[in-house]
Amino acid sequence: MPARSLDRSLIRGLDIFASMQEDDLEAVLEGASARQVPAGTPVFEQGAEAREFFLLLHGHLKVVQTTPDGQQVVVRHVNPGDIYGIAKALRRTDYPATSIAVVDSLTLAWPSSRWDPLVARNPVLATNALQTVGQRLQDAHARIRELSTEEVERRVAHAVLRLVQQAGRKTEEGVLIDFPVTRQDIAEMTGTTLHTVSRVMSAWEAKGLVASGRKRIVVLDPHRLVALADAAE
Amino acid sequence: MPARSLDRSLIRGLDIFASMQEDDLEAVLEGASARQVPAGTPVFEQGAEAREFFLLLHGHLKVVQTTPDGQQVVVRHVNPGDIYGIAKALRRTDYPATSIAVVDSLTLAWPSSRWDPLVARNPVLATNALQTVGQRLQDAHARIRELSTEEVERRVAHAVLRLVQQAGRKTEEGVLIDFPVTRQDIAEMTGTTLHTVSRVMSAWEAKGLVASGRKRIVVLDPHRLVALADAAE
DNA sequence: CGGTGCCTTGAGAATTGTCAACCGCTGTGG
DNA sequence: CCACAGCGGTTGACAATTCTCAAGGCACCG
User: Fold this and answer.
1) Residue nearest to nucleotide D26 (CA to C1')
2) Of the residues B104, B136, B168, which one is the last residue of a structural domain?
3) Which of A59, A113, A57 lies closest to A86 in space, CA to CA?
4) One domain, residues A158 and A117
5) Which of A71, A225, B45, B99 is 20 to 30 Å apart from A177, CA to CA?
6) Closest alpha carbon within chain A to B70
């Protein structure tokens, strides 16, 4: 499906296209195609040749690295409006990770070969991409800091709060994380095991901090969870 | 000290200035000043206003984040030719970490305000910076993967090998890491304690893998160390 | 030659992982 | 429509890794 026919309101106002001319934006979209991604389906896979780069319009993806011995690590989540899979811009020929839809999603895709001409015509694109990647680098450093210095409970608290920020939806009960998340997912985000995550969250449940069930997490008392994440004890 | 007087051979051939015109390069250097940084001295400090960005000409820096409770994490090392402290390009007003010289070093510095005009005149700069930051993001993800899935000994092995790659110098004995590194430094790179690092390296010493002493590490058998880092024992 | 900084090593404790068993949804096919 | 398979979750017991606390030694600098 060509992207021209897309609702412009989806596109305008995305960070990556900030301060671009109307007709330049049209030209950018010219080269894109839109694609439906059912939940559980990969958009691209680790090690595959990086033929395309992407922009998420709707839904949620997780980006996962798999170690040689099969363990998985969730590198980050992709939210609507994010660009991803821009391996070519980083001078890589293959994707360093796999991206999988966690809910039914809609993405734009451009051929990787389009990146250089696009940037040539719209230098602001490189600047915006630099800011985006820079933000991700800082997020990554924050996670390194957490993994290095915090114990499991605080890491899990940070991970849950990050999910709340990215996909929190207010309900009567509290803040619901608006896509399916398993204990295993949280474990892969925090460098621990699903068993430990389960124990931690059971304890929180007993204290009235969260309510959770199958693939579902509701934060009942964000304030106390923040306190737990930030301070010791 | 103005940068104009610098030896051009130091500058030419740096990744960040790849495919720039001669006179553009001159203009870039116009705005820079050179600065001597004695070992142990910070170039900039975490939380300070980001007035400048930098390029390392000679020496080695470590980039450190300090947690609220005083623990330190080594985020990365800066090698000659690297740009660093480009907080403004990432739309930050302050530095997210402290950078400290580990040996006497020489750096160029530009006022942060110069970044935007420089990029406007030399769009390739943004592209090159994007690649650099992209590479760092991948390095950071690799570390996240290690911290999440590997146990201490392998993490330390990876850290030492990374140092070898960045600053290894062949000697008769083996490969010397060419700047002072303490057990504490390695601990801050791998998310463990100096005690555990000391034990691990003592064991390696006994097996003839490395020779190490005060602030000094020589890898005697890189091949076996790689094997240790990659495979599960 | 004294002091400070870096390194080593031991003993015991704490966190977290491993192994195992079991529960209860959920959704699918007969 | 019901039964059942399979996935996700929970919990206990135990083991292992790693940290904490403590003491002491050695090398380098002033």
Assistant:
1) B214
2) B136
3) A113
4) no
5) A71
6) A149
